[in-house]
């Protein structure tokens, strides 16, 4: 037996596909899932008793900022990762072409988690742009930062974990100049087309119309901050999805939560989800320095907000496992509990009680249930989860 051979017993196994839970055992060894089935005999492995727990594929956070040591926003991967049940994550454009070499050299190889990346079309990346820290300048404060040739050169030089492109379309991050935003908007599509990769668009309080953005997105592209509070979100006043939003979903655009410090509010999410059933494809945190201690805290807390909204547990788990893996095009090895897949597993607890959940505007809801992470297994190595903030 390998040193990390484990047999998980007595848990409710969600395989990540959206199927209902099964009471089966999971055998892992040599860093991969080796066998799944009822009442598997022990072969001398360490037994993990998952009684009362949900056995899930390792959680994947599709929107974080973990380029620690540069700029205002980033935290360490460890703060977003295994301690919260997250085994893989996507850094969404913290680095641009001028800074990505250090992301690749120092951050990615040091992380215990799998850290994938999107390259910001802005050469400088998302390192500034918080109103409380002057001078207030964003990624596209100068439209010349959206330099396609440099982005493509960088992406080709660092192909290992770089899975796509990113642009932040907010007028304030472009010096309130539509030309600067358009440089980023046009540039991100040109770079992604040249690379043959998907892209992610952050669009909120932008001079570019929502319909223009939605109509441009291609199958596999990601639209994040779905339930943001600004007037240019993609829902009517009563919460009904606009036609362009529905058409984009039909084309295969991925709709992501990206909670953040200002991009998830109950007043948008509640009618969109509860009344019109427009649930996210992926649930993510947009975790960074300014929301780590609230209102986001971690991915299970964000998942719990959709549990409160009425999203079925199996669909919540799918949104943070196989759907996220597919969005990054790494579902061949991550995102589901299947024989031969990487042994990334999270054990969640579904708790009953009264739990306060805050949105980005400080509005509270109280839920009778929440999800918390108890253990995370990364390539067969087990870690106890727990907050230490």
Structural description of this entry:
The chain has 389 residues and is α/β, with parallel strands linked by helices. The protein has 2 domains: 6-56 and 340-384, Urease, subunit C, domain 1 (Roll), CATH 2.30.40; 59-328, Metal-dependent hydrolases (TIM Barrel). The chain is 23% helix and 25% strand. It has helices at residues 77-80, 100-107, 148-157, 178-195, 210-216, 243-251, 266-275, 299-309, 313-319, 322-328; strands at 6-9, 12-13, 25-29, 32-37, 46-49, 54-57, 59-64, 86-92, 114-120, 162-169, 199-203, 222-224, 254-255, 345-358, 364-378, 381-384. The strands form 3 sheets. The protein has a 7-stranded parallel beta sheet, sandwiched between helices. β9 (114-120), α3 and β10 (162-169) form a beta-alpha-beta unit. The model has no long low-confidence stretch (mean pLDDT 97).
Short note summarizing the structure:
The protein has 389 residues and is of the alpha/beta class. The protein has helices at 77-80, 100-107, 148-157, 178-195, 210-216, 243-251, 266-275, 299-309, 313-319, 322-328, and strands at residues 6-9, 12-13, 25-29, 32-37, 46-49, 54-57, 59-64, 86-92, 114-120, 162-169, 199-203, 222-224, 254-255, 345-358, 364-378, 381-384.
């Amino acid at each position: 037996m390998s040193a990390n051979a484990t047999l998980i017993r007595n848990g409710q196994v969600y395989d990540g596909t959206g199927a209902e839970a099964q009471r089966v055992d999971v055998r892992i060894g040599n860093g991969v899932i080796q066998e799944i089935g009822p009442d598997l005999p022990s072969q001398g492995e360490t037994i993990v008793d998952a009684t009362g727990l949900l056995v899930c594929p390792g959680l994947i956070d599709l929107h974080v900022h973990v380029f620690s040591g540069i700029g205002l926003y980033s935290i360490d991967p460890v703060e977003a990762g295994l301690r919260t049940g997250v085994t893989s994550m996507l850094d969404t454009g913290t680095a641009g072409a001028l800074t990505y070499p250090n992301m690749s050299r120092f951050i990615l190889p040091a992380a215990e988690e799998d850290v994938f990346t999107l390259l910001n079309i802005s050469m400088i990346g998302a390192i500034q742009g918080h109103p409380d820290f002057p001078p207030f300048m964003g990624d596209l404060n100068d439209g010349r930062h959206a330099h396609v040739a440099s982005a493509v050169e960088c992406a080709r030089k660092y192909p290992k974990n770089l899975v796509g492109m990113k642009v932040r379309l907010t007028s304030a991050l472009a010096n309130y100049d539509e030309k600067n935003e358009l440089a980023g908007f046009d540039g991100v599509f040109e770079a992604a087309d040249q690379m043959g990769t998907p892209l992610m668009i952050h669009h909120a309080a932008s001079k570019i119309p929502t319909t223009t953005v939605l109509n441009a997105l291609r199958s596999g592209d990601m639209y994040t901050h779905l339930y943001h509070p600004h007037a240019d979100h993609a829902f009517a006043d009563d919460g009904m999805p606009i036609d362009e939003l529905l058409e984009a979903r039909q084309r295969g655009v991925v709709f992501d939560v990206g909670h953040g410090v200002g991009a998830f509010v109950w007043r948008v999410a509640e009618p969109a989800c509860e009344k019109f059933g427009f649930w996210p494809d992926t649930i993510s945190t947009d975790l960074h320095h300014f929301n780590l201690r609230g209102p986001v805290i971690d991915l299970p807390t964000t998942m719990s907000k959709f549990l409160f909204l009425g999203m079925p547990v199996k669909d919540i788990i799918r949104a943070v496992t196989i759907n996220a893996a597919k969005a990054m095009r790494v579902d061949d090895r991550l995102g589901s509990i299947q024989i031969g897949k990487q042994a990334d597993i999270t054990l969640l607890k579904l708790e009953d009680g009264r739990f306060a959940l805050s949105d980005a505007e400080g509005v509270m809801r109280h839920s009778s249930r929440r999800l918390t992470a108890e253990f995370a297994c990364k390539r067969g190595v087990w870690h106890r989860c727990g907050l230490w903030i």
